[in-house]
Each structure stands twice: as structure tokens, then as C-alpha cells.
Specification:
Elements: H1 2-16, H2 18-60, E1 63-65, H3 67-85, H4 89-93, H5 95-104, E2 111-113, H6 119-122, H7 131-145, E3 151-155, H8 162-175, E4 181-186, H9 193-204, H10 213-225, E5 230-237, H11 243-246, E6 257-263, H12 266-272, E7 277-280, H13 286-297, H14 307-316, H15 321-331, H16 336-347, H17 351-357, H18 359-371, H19 375-386, H20 392-402, H21 411-427, H22 440-453, E8 456-460, H23 466-471, H24 473-478, E9 481-487, E10 506-511, E11 534-538, E12 557-561, E13 579-581, E14 602-604, H25 618-621, E15 627-630, E16 641-642, E17 645-646, E18 658-663, E19 680-685, E20 698-703, E21 723-727, H26 731-744, E22 751-755, H27 763-766, E23 774-778, H28 791-794, E24 799-803, H29 814-819, E25 826-830, H30 835-851, E26 860-867, E27 872-880, E28 884-887, E29 891-892
Parallel strand pairs: 3-6, 3-7, 4-5, 5-6, 8-9, 9-10, 10-11, 11-12, 12-13, 13-14, 14-15, 15-18, 18-19, 19-20, 20-21, 21-22, 22-23, 23-24, 24-25, 25-26
Antiparallel strand pairs: 1-2, 16-17, 26-27, 27-28, 27-29
Helix pairs in contact: 1-2, 2-3, 2-5, 7-8, 9-10, 13-15, 14-16, 17-18, 17-22, 18-22, 19-21, 19-22, 20-21
């Protein structure tokens, strides 16, 4: 009915006028559009609800909503509100907009997983920007920028601050936009691959669907490869970890993925993980340590009452952060009596004391000890620690004496074994790089463990109360080692008191060298120590040597270094003795009884400046002698007769395999003293050489004068030589040496010092020196236009010492360094009275090098300017390819 009425009305309108017809048409279209709009709005509302549900679900999963989805929801809701309030022509016009909104709401995804910031990297609370570590931090960041380095490591002992440093590296790397993402995972001693994978995946927002390790590794590998620049930090690596098994790409697999390790062992980093560049973290400087200590203990330690003792306590922590923090916090707000008690405990570590006052430090270092491979390495660490061993030679004496070498009978083999073990301890950061130096806290842990597990007694200085210690007879009976160091008073029992030590194997006393005349040994002291195998007495007054020493039938090593000695004939009764060290003692004559020591393998007579007489046949009777050290200001009157008394001959020593000898008077040079059996030697002939300079195991240096020249037969010991020094040789002498080098081969020669010689090595001869590294010669012989040395030899040099004379040319131009000295690391310049001139020559020549250094390929050049007369260093210039640092100062340097 309605439709009929409408139709009639429309027809009437047509008759009335055209404008009326248009009005009715609008009403009809409006009705249709309004219905369409309602339909579209209802559908849009349904889609808004659906998408909002998806958004809510994604947010519950802690996913991040896509920005276009958020914008669409806001726009759609706003459009719905406006349409509901405007049912008008304007609303009808919004039909197209609503249709477009619906079309735009067809999203491929509503949300995406987010990677939350690693809380360990958000802030590095507690990090102190110590100056001593800034260079290491910057070097690590520089390595991370290097496109050729994909794996690098930070190495240091437990508690030194490796993790704190790597977190700061991570923060700075992220802030400097070196990486888009940094992930951090802490390793365990026995890493669980699934746990490592899961920890890295969590920080990547990755959910594994695979159950197998290999499947998870593929998924993780794929996910990491989607990151353009990512740094993976694996903290505290203990053993080899196969990155491929975990699923971490590196190197050619993904140039943008770099891996940073921390470890306590350099061996783990370099050998087991193939880390390309490693950075060692050492102890804090004293003032840095004090600053950290004050921060942890509180500023009240600056008070007049506490400051001195607090400083001493801080020093006992020896720059080890974990120790500093633990001790300072334990003593925070404590009274002066507690500080003094802590200082006493720190200075005399025992198992109980150390664990109580430094529990965190003990735990960290004891863990490193537990991880050392094998009992041999663990025992070596303990021995170096509690016995205060300072050198390879001393360690060799102890280990031979204690019978710790299994299946090794030759000293040279034993030395190689010791060197290998020491290297492993250094690689494990249980020893410092220099010699056998040990961090004080690491030594304290060694003493603590040895005290608890090995019944070792160690005491130093004024902390040792002899009367109290010796009174505990039950404890003394159990001691396996007694080590007293820096003793200032006579603390050993008197003659009437005998120490009963049936378990004792090692007895060592080192007096304070300023008080050596006060320390003596009672005559019957050793009567009840019959099992002792090693005795080490240093700076002692042994006038006379105790007669009870002759009762020690098991003694293998006797070391009497820097002792006051007169008659040592009692040593002839020690039939099992293998090592006798008299270094630095004031003995004047070797007794004939010494010739009875047929098992003796090593005799050390270095620095025995008063030794005037070695009777003949004593040395030849030592049929098992392998190693004789008699250099450095000791006996040198070989093959002579004085007042009808004959002295020992070098012919008695043909069976030696290791020999140290110094003959200062060239005119008294004996003939035929070079031995074919020597594996290790250090022979210095003449007065121009410095004995203390010792870097090689096969070292021969000779100085001649116008009256003496070499014979062909004197050069047989050049085989395997590493260091050759020639001074004042004639042309024929140089040719003799060259001929001998050709005959025996010289592939191991690394260091050549040649002065006052005027003959050159020709290019053919220089090919005999493939490992040549160091040259010392007159500057005029190195200059391009007047060189004694062929260019293919010069270009190998890593260290050059140039002696300038009045007519020496300037040789240090940029062209010289780039074309002739491109492998150079150290340059040492000397010039006697021309030292200042040499400095000017070097600096003038170096000016262009400094200005243009960024164009060169040198990693490091250190220029040392020396006055030859007093060997003062007047300037040191360090140059690196990032920056150059110029430091001018005067210091005393070890003469070469």
C-alpha cells in the first residue's frame, strides 16, 4: 500500500513541475544510502570488536601491537562515534569512508613479538670507570669495529672484574650503535646446550617448536641471521663450546654476528674457542683500589683514627675488585679493633682466616684452582704460592728435589716440563705474565689450600712467633713443608730443643737480607728431619754449616743462596744430592769432598765473587753433572796454575748439556772449550757484555782485540744459536763465523749484535736467517746508502738498536719506515756523548712519520732514546695507528 501511495505521489509531482520530481528522487536515494550506511557501520563495528579481541590477546602475550593496527582502531572508533551523532547528509557522505575503513582493516598481522631489553645491560650499576681499564675498554670497542674480527675474548683471574667490563662494553657498543641487538648469556662450568639455547632465544623473543638440540640450533641460527648487526656475549667460558651445536653463526656464516667471551684461561680462549683477539684484565692501581674501597666501606675511613689501618687493609686486597668489595663491606661501620684484627688475618692467611674475611675472593679463586687440569698443575700452583717460588730455576730445584717428575730423568726435559706447566698456569690467569709473579690474593688462596690439605706451614716477617709455633709439637709433627720468609730475628729453636718433623719434605728459610748476620742454624737442628728432600736457605749466616746436615740421607736439593759460607765439606756426605746451589754465597774454595756427589746433576755457582779456587778433578768426578752455571762475576781462572796449585780445566766438562760461563779477560781465553753436547748455553767472552740481559736459551757473545783472533775450531757451538754478539772482530773472524753458520745452519738465530766489525753479510748469507728479529749495530751501517746488511734482512726486523756517532746519518724518515722497517716494533737509540744529537736526529726524522702515521701499517712503534754512557733513557715515544702519545721522562733502564 505504501509503495502505491508513493508511486502516485511521484506521478503527481511529475505533472506539477520538474523541481518537485528532483525532490522526490533525493528522498528515495537518501533512504537507500542510509540503509547501506547502517549496514556498513554494523559490519565495521563487528570488525572493530574482532580486531580488538586479537589486540587484547596479543598484549596478554606481551607482544607489541603493529602501529597501523593501533591507528586503524583509533580511526574506526572515532568514525563510529561521529556517524551516530550525525544522521544527516554529512553522515550519508561518509559511506565511502566507512567502506574504505573496512577495506583498510584487513591486516596480515595484528602484532609482533618484542625483545625486552636485557636487564643486565640496561645499566651497569657499580661500574667504575678506572683509568687503568679505559684503554682496554677502548681497545675492545675498536676490535668490535674491525670487520675482520668475529670472535674476541676478555681474560683474567676470578674476581678481577671481567663481567663488569664486558657489560660496559655491551652498553657502549649499543649506545654507539655498533650493534642493533646485544644478547648476554652466562655459562656454567659444564654448559647445558639446551639451557644456553633457551637463554639466548628468550632474549630474541624466539619460541622453539623443536624438541631436539639440533632442531633448536637451526631455529636459533636462522633467527640470529635475521639480525643485521648483533653481539652475542658468552660470559665465563670454562671449556670448549661448539657454537655450531648451539646455533650461533659467526665468521663467514654471518659477518654481522660477533661473539665476545670472558674466561679465566687464555688457553680456553685462544686454543679451544679460536678467539682472534684477547684482552687481559689486570689488578687495579693502588689509588683506584683505594677509591673503590672507600666507596664500599664509607667515607668515614678517611678519619684520622682509621685512615692508616684502612689503607693497609686495602693494600692487602692487592687491587682485586672482588676482594676489595668483600672486605670493605664486611668492615663498614666497624670499630678500630675489628679493622686491626682483619689486617692481622689478611697478613697471615690460613684456611679459616681467609674464608672468613674474604669469602667471595676465596670462592672465586678456589673455583679456578678446582678447574686446573690434573693434580700436577694444581700441586705446582700450590708450591709456587706457599713456597714463594720466583723463577723457573728455583721451581726446577724444588720439583727435582721433591721427586715430582714422573718418567723424566734429564734436567733439560724437566725444565721443558716446568716451562709447559708454568705456561698453563699463566694461561689460566693463576700467574701474572712476568716470570712466576703471583697476585697476592691468589697466593693467599694457595697458602690457605696448602695449609688445609697438605699440612704446609708458611709464615712471613714479624707475624711469625717462633716460640709459640714450635711449642705445638703435635702440629709440627704433621708438617710436610715449613716455609719462613723475610725473617728478621733468630726464630729457630736453640740447640737444646729438637724439632721432630717425621713428615717434613721441604724446609725453607729466607732471612731479611739486611738482617742476614743475625740468623743462624743450630748445629743439631736437622737431627729429627731425616725425610727432608729439599732445603732452601737464603741470606743466612752458616758459619759453620750445621753438622747435622750430613745426616740427611734423603736430601736431593740443597740451596744456600747468598749465605755466609766457609767450609761446606759436610755436603760430601749427601750421597743422593742431585742439585747444589751456592749462588751469591761468599764461598772461596770448593772442597774436594764435593767430588763425591756422583749423583749431582746441577751445580750453580753464579755470582760467587769470592770463589777463587776449584781444584782439578772435582768437576770431572761429578759423572752425572748436566748443568753448570758459573757466570755473572764468578770463578774464571780455568786451565791455570797459581803458586804451584792447578785449577780446574774446562776439559773436565765435556759431558755437560747446559752451561753458563763468563770469561771477562779475553787474553786468558782458553782454547777448545766449545762442546758439541750443549743444548742450552750462555757463554760471554770479554768485558763489554751485560750478564743480566738474558732472553735466549742459546746465547754466545764474544769480544776480541787486536792481539786475538778466532780459530776455525772455536765456532762449533753456533749450532741452534738464538743470540749472537760480536764485538771487535777482524774481517777474517767475521768470515769464520759466517762459514760456521753456513755449516751448522742458523735458522734459529733471532738476535744479532755486531759492533766494531767492518765486514758485511752478503744477500746470499742473509737467507740463512729466516727468523731474524733484532739487530744492534752502528747507525752508519744501517743507513740506506751505506748498509752492511742486505735489505731483505733489514725488512724483517722487529727491534733495532742504532748507535749514533758523530758522522751518523739520519735514518728515521717516513719513507725509511714504510719501505725498509715495516715490521718494526721497537727502536732503541744510543749515542754516548752524542746522545742529544741522536735524540735530535731521531725526532727530526720522526716528525713526518708522526704527522702521517695513519697512512702506515705499523701496529706499535716504541722509540727509546738512550745515553750509552750511563744508560739513562731520555725519551720514550709511543706511536699507535689510532693516536700517538709522547711521554718525555728520565728513568734508569736495565743496560743491554
Amino acid at each position: 500500500m505504501v509503495e502505491i501511495i508513493v508511486s502516485v505521489v511521484i506521478e503527481v509531482g511529475k505533472c506539477l513541475a520538474p523541481s518537485t520530481e528532483r525532490q522526490f528522487s533525493y528522498v528515495r536515494d537518501y533512504t537507500s544510502n542510509f540503509e547501506n550506511l547502517n549496514t556498513q557501520v554494523e559490519k565495521l563495528e563487528g570488525e572493530i570488536v574482532s580486531i580488538q579481541h586479537a589486540v587484547d590477546e596479543a598484549e596478554r602475550k606481551r607482544e607489541e601491537i603493529e602501529e597501523n593496527v593501533q591507528n586503524w582502531l583509533a580511526g574506526a572508533n572515532k568514525a563510529i562515534v561521529e556517524i551516530r551523532h550525525r544522521l544527516s547528509k554529512e553522515a550519508v557522505r561518509q559511506l565511502d569512508a566507512i567502506v574504505k575503513l573496512r577495506k583498510d582493516g584487513r591486516f596480515e598481522r595484528i602484532s609482533h613479538s618484542i625483545i625486552p631489553e636485557d636487564t643486565l645491560l640496561m645499566s651497569n650499576k657499580g661500574y667504575e670507570a678506572f683509568e687503568s681499564r679505559m684503554s682496554t675498554l677502548n681497545d675492545i670497542l675498536g676490535a668490535l669495529r674491525n670487520p675482520d674480527i668475529s670472535m674476541l675474548g676478555i681474560c683474567g683471574m676470578g674476581g678481577i672484574g671481567k663481567t663488569m667490563l664486558e657489560k660496559e662494553v655491551a652498553r657502549k657498543a649499543k649506545n654507539h650503535k655498533l650493534f642493533d641487538l646485544v644478547v648476554f648469556s652466562e655459562m656454567s662450568q659444564s654448559p647445558d646446550i639446551r639451557k644456553v639455547q633457551g637463554e639466548i632465544a628468550d632474549k630474541l623473543g624466539l619460541t622453539f617448536r623443536e624438541e631436539s638440540e639440533s632442531g633448536r640450533a637451526r631455529s636459533l641460527f636462522s633467527r640470529l641471521n635475521r639480525e643485521k648487526r648483533i653481539l652475542v656475549i658468552l660470559d665465563n667460558i670454562w671449556e670448549h663450546l661448539d657454537l655450531q651445536v648451539v646455533g650461533i653463526p659467526h665468521g663467514d656464516d654471518h659477518k654481522g654476528c660477533k661473539v665476545l667471551f670472558t674466561a679465566r684461561s687464555l688457553d680456553v680462549l685462544s686454543r679451544k674457542m679460536d678467539s682472534q683477539q684477547n684482552f687481559l684484565v689486570g689488578a687495579l692501581e693502588e689509588e683506584e683500589a683505594w677509591r673503590l674501597f672507600k666507596k664500599m666501606a664509607g667515607d668515614y675511613v678517611e678519619g684520622s683514627e682509621l685512615k692508616c689501618v684502612a689503607r693497609d687493609v686495602a693494600k692487602e686486597c692487592a687491587g682485586l675488585p672482588v676482594s676489595i668489595v668483600a672486605v670493605a663491606r664486611a668492615l663498614r661501620s666497624a670499630g678500630i679493633f675489628k679493622w686491626k684484627d682483619a689486617l692481622k688475618q689478611l697478613r697471615r692467611p690460613s684456611s679459616a682466616n681467609f674464608k672468613h674475611i674474604q669469602p667471595e675472593a676465596y670462592k672465586a679463586i678456589a673455583l679456578s684452582y678446582d678447574k686446573l687440569e690434573g693434580e700436577e698443575l694444581k700441586n705446582l700452583y700450590l708450591l709456587i704460592g706457599f713456597a714463594y717460588v720466583e723463577s723457573i730455576d728455583e721451581l726446577l730445584r724444588y720439583r727435582v728435589g721433591l721427586g715430582l717428575f714422573q718418567g723424566i730423568s734429564k734436567l733439560e726435559e724437566a725444565r721443558d716440563r716446568v716451562s709447559t706447566l708454568v705456561y698453563e698456569l699463566q694461561a689460566s690467569c693463576m700467574l701474572l705474565d712476568e716470570g712466576l709473579s703471583m697476585h697476592d690474593v691468589i697466593r693467599d688462596v694457595a697458602i690457605s689450600i696448602a695449609s688445609a690439605e697438605k699440612n704446609v706451614f708458611t709464615a712471613t716477617g714479624e707475624l711469625f712467633d717462633g716460640c709459640m709455633e714450635w711449642s705445638d709439637e703435635n702440629a709440627v709433627k704433621l708438617y710436610t713443608s715449613i716455609v719462613l720468609r723475610d725473617i728478621k730475628t733468630n726464630v729457630l729453636p736453640a740447640d737444646r730443643v729438637l724439632l721432630e718433623c717425621p713428615q717434613l719434605k721441604l724446609f725453607s728459610v729466607r732471612a731479611d737480607h739486611q738482617e742476614s748476620s743475625l740468623l743462624t742454624i743450630p748445629n743439631n737442628f736437622f737431627e729429627r728431619m731425616i725425610q727432608v728432600r729439599v732445603i732452601n736457605l737464603t741470606y743466612m749466616n752458616l758459619l759453620p754449616l750445621p753438622s747435622s746436615l750430613g745426616l740427611l740421607s734423603n736430601l736431593r736439593t740443597l740451596s744456600l743462596c747468598y749465605c755466609k759460607l766457609l767450609d761446606i765439606s759436610v755436603t760430601g756426605e749427601l750421597k743422593k744430592l742431585e742439585i747444589l746451589c751456592l749462588r751469591g754465597s761468599d764461598i772461596q774454595q770448593l772442597p774436594v769432598e764435593l767430588g763425591q756427589l756422583t749423583r749431582l746433576k746441577l751445580l750453580d755457582l753464579r755470582d760467587c765473587s769470592k770463589l777463587e779456587v776449584i781444584p782439578p778433578n772435582i768437576l770431572s768426578n761429578l759423572s752425572h753433572l748436566e748443568d753448570l752455571n758459573i757466570g755473572d762475576n764468578s770463578f774464571d781462572k780455568w786451565d791455570v796454575e797459581v803458586d804451584g796449585v792447578k785449577y780446574a780445566s774446562l776439559d773436565e766438562l765435556k759431558h755437560l748439556t747446559s752451561f753458563e760461563l763468563q770469561i771477562r779477560d779475553v787474553n786468558g781465553l782458553p782454547r777448545g772449550f766449545f762442546f758439541e753436547k750443549l743444548e742450552r748455553y750462555r757463554i760471554l767472552i770479554g768485558d763489554s757484555w751485560n750478564w743480566k740481559y738474558n732472553i735466549c736459551s742459546r746465547d754466545f757473545r764474544i769480544e776480541l782485540n787486536s792481539k786475538i783472533s778466532l780459530k776455525d775450531g772455536l765456532s762449533v757451538q753456533l749450532q741452534g744459536i738464538e743470540h749472537l754478539g760480536l764485538y771487535g772482530l777482524h774481517e777474517q773472524d767475521v768470515h769464520n763465523f759466517v762459514n760456521e753458520l753456513v755449516k751448522v745452519g742458523s735458522s734459529q738465530l733471532k738476535h744479532l749484535w755486531i759492533e766494531g766489525c767492518h765486514d758485511a753479510l752478503n744477500p746470499a748469507e742473509s737467507k740463512l736467517l729466516p727468523n731474524f728479529e733484532e739487530l744492534r749495530a752502528d747507525a752508519k751501517h744501517i743507513a740506506t746508502n751505506n748498509s752492511l746488511f742486505p735489505e731483505d734482512l733489514i725488512c724483517k726486523l722487529k727491534c733495532l738498536e742504532a748507535e749514533f756517532g758523530a758522522e751518523s746519518p739520519t735514518i728515521f724518515s717516513l719513507d725509511d719506515f714504510q719501505q725498509r722497517f715495516h715490521a718494526m716494533k721497537v727502536l732503541r737509540i744510543g749515542g754516548g756523548r752524542h746522545a742529544q744529537e741522536a735524540k735530535e736526529k731521531a725526532e727530526n726524522g720522526m716528525e713526518s712519520l708522526l704527522m702521517n702515521f695513519s697512512t702506515s701499517n705499523f701496529a706499535l712503534v716504541a722509540v727509546v732514546i738512550v745515553d750509552k754512557d750511563d744508560d739513562d733513557v731520555s725519551a720514550i715515544l709511543f706511536i699507535s695507528n689510532d693516536q700517538f702519545l709522547q711521554q718525555l721522562f728520565t728513568l734508569k733502564k736495565q743496560p743491554l
